Structure formats: structure tokens, C-alpha cells
Amino acid sequence: MTTEQSGPYYELEVVRIIEETADARSLVFGVPDGLKETFKYRAGQFLTFGVTVEEHPLVRCYSLASSPDVDAEKKVTVKRVAEGRASNWFNDHVTVGDVLKVMKPAGNFCLQDRSTQLVLFAGGSGITPVISLVKSALATTQRSIQLVYANRDEGSIIFRKELDELASAHADRLEVVHRLDEVDGFLDVTAAGALISNALSADFYVCGPGAYMDVVEAALATAGVPSDRIFIERFLSPELEALDHPAEREEGEASSKVVIYLDGQETELVVGEGETILEACHRAGLDAPCACLEGYCGACMALVKGGTVEMRENDGGLDDSQVAEGWVLTCQGLLRSEGVRVEYPDA
Fold first, then answer.
1. Residue 153: which residues within 8 A CB-CB, separation 6 or more?
2. Fewer CB under 10 Å: which end of the chain, C or N?
3. What is the pLDDT of residues 182-204, one digit of tens each?
């Protein structure tokens, strides 16, 4: 395999496909030796794909369901979404031997260096980053783990066999609670509260459909769980354009310059009207990190060292303390003064 790169994308080959359920499949990728370091990842992170569906360039993020501490291969799982252009394309058209455009791993939905109990709530395809966290926690820590996994019915449970095997092999540490809508009804705040009542000092991880996550977050808030113990991963499906699609321009914005510090190099760029810092970086051929492009994952965060930058959106990508320290999401960052200097953290 070669190590071709185009902008922030690398080429990876699909070496195996696993049909997980009637509407979900896993893609296993081969990583060439020259990209092993680039594609190192932490449990809970995701890969970002650039695909073209019916002549429309799309960008989608899919979580790694594999664990870097357990699994030799890199695996993402894609669940079909009604009317979802990308998810249906991945399920209907990708075959073994296909080469896909993939960005390096990103994301902050990761384990903390603590010994406290883990309580993880997953709904539907939200199990994909969660099972990665579970496997890594079992392999590298002694933490006790409770996983609450909600699905429509038995046939929708992704990774059922693997979860059963993990629960059996680690019966002293791992409890898996399956909730099925057709049997138990939809999870509500009372039921979620009962599940967490004996684990209020745990670290809580939540990933799933929006309504499901809202219920769990409400239960955690009602129970008084501090925010630094709650970790959220939101799955969004925006119809994103390709990275080089021109940005919408806003009145009053003028072209300006920004100095970028990335990978030990200093580069001065011209940023056009309405153009974000990240778009300017990619237009200039800089391999600036990114993923969701929507302001929620934090992969593109950088520190403002001078001047003023305003973010269009910050949908959870940065917390208040990070914003106060001067961090911005460059996919949302617009120049608001001269003399802007931005430094990306070391990879």
C-alpha cells in the first residue's frame, strides 16, 4: 500500500467488512507502515472521511470501534440513517479493496487518568466510541465499569456477541445493561437516575441520539454530578461541503493576514472575507488538524497568541475555561483585528 496524501486526507484501503446488523456494518482498514504513526489514536476518537456521493462532496466523522490497546486493526462502524446520503453510501457501495480518503484520528471523548468507576450510556450507533473506551479501560486499568446500552429491539444491538464475551470474561468488573425500547419503553429521567444512583462519584460517558442524551444529561444534572465528570460525544450529520468549498462571506469582513504556528513552522497567510482560519490553512496547503467542521469536536483548536478572533459557533468543542485561556476552534474562527497569531498544539 502507498502513503498518498491530499491536503488533510490520507488514503486507506478497506481490507475487511463486517455486517454487524441489518443496518450497520464495520469497515476495517489497512494502514501502511509509513502511516502507522499518523494513525495512532486514543480510545474514543474518530476518523473523518471525505467522499463524493452523486457528485456531492461530503465530509463525515465515524468513531473508531476498535481499541488501540486491544485490537491490531482500525475499525469504524457506520449505521444506516434514513435519508442519510453518506451512511447509505457506506452501507451500499463500499467494498473490500476500496481506497477511501481519511483524515488522521481526532476527538476528545477519551478516558481520563483516574481510577474511579466508569458509567457509560450508549444509544444505537453511539456504542461505537463507547465499546472502544470499555475495551481500553478493561485492558489498561482496574476500573469497574457499567455500560447501559439502549436499542430499539434485539436485532438492532450492534456488537452483541463482543459485548457478551467482554461481560463474561470480566464479570468481576463489567456490567452490561441492555435496554430495549420495545420491552422497557424509552429511557426517561427517572429510570436513568435509578441507574446512576449508586455511582455518583463515577466518570460518566454519554453517546447516542439527541433525545436519549438529553434524558441522561438531565438525570446527571438532577443528581448533582459535576460537569468535569461528564463526557459527551454528539453524532451530527450535517450535509457538509468539501474542505475547499468557498465560505459564505459576511458584510464588514475584510481580507487580512494571520501568522500560523504549526508543526514547528511559522507561516503567514492571507485570509479572505468570510474565510475561517482553517479554510485559509487548507487553501495554502497546510495540514492543519480538523474533523467535524461544525464546532463541536475540538479537533481544530488552536491558541490565539495575538490579535482578536471571533468564533461563529462553539457547540461544545471548547469549554468556558479554554475560551478564557484564548483557545479557538479554527473551523469557526474569523479574524477581527490585524496582527492575529495562532498556534496549534503539538500533535
1. 180, 181, 182, 183
2. C
3. 999 999 999 999 999 999 999 99
Q: Distance between CA atoms of 258 and 286, rounded to whole angstroms?
A: 13
Output b/e per residue, 189-215; b: 16+ Cβ within 10 A: beebbebbeebeebbbbbbbeeebbeb
- The answer on pLDDT for 272 being more than 90 is no
Check residues 235 and 41 and name the one with the higher pLDDT.
41
Return d(Cα 220, Cα 46) in angstroms, integer: 25
Distance CA 47, CA 38 (A): 12
Output the nine-digit C-alpha cell for 121.
450510556
Q: Which domains does the chain have, with CATH numbers?
A: 5-102 (2.40.30.10), 118-234 (3.40.50.80), 256-343 (3.10.20.30)
Q: What is the pTM of this model?
A: 0.76
Strands (E), 181-332: 203-208, 230-234, 256-262, 265-271, 301-306, 309-311, 327-329
All cell numbers assigned to 3: 502513503
Distance between CA 191 and CA 130 in Å, rounded? 20
Dihedral of the alpha carbons of 195, 196, 202, 206, in degrees to the nearest 10: 70
Q: The cell 488514503 sits on which residue?
A: 11
Query: Using an 8 Å Cβ cutoff, are 44 and 233 in contact?
Result: yes
pLDDT digits (tens, 9 = 90+) for 2-22: 556 655 689 999 999 999 999
